[in-house]
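It is worth pausing here to work through a concrete case rather than discussing structure prediction in the abstract. The textbook approach is simple: state the sequence, then state the predicted structure, then interpret. We follow exactly that order.
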Amino acid sequence: MTQSKRGPRTASKRQLRVGEELRHVIAEILSRDLIHDPDVAGASVTISEVKPSPDMRNATVYVTSLGGVNEEAVIAGLNRTAGVIQGEMGRQLTMKFTPRLVFRKDDSFAYGSHIDELIRKNQSPEDSK
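Step two, the predicted structure:
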């Protein structure tokens, strides 16, 4: 019996809804300066997306820092303080489990600007009229 190859699953409506709620809650927690890690304190962080796993026990949080300044240090600091953020989330959410958070760098903005640059470079002068 052969197994069919399946690509990555698309997120369910519930995953999208929970991801958006988690994004709002995490952004609110970070805006209140509850994190005392020196790499995170005072850093301006944008949370672009939160992708929860299908069982809602884990979530990947995609972040960028303002201007890309100390981005690796900020993400490392967020991963160190994920337990504090998770604990605060547990007080604000009414979920059965509070997801375990993993912070990752969001490359979608850089990728989008790269694609835009390629399109502009390959545009002929008559197309811009």
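Step three, interpretation. Residues 13-31 form the longest helix (19 residues). The beta strands are 45-52, 58-65, 100-105.
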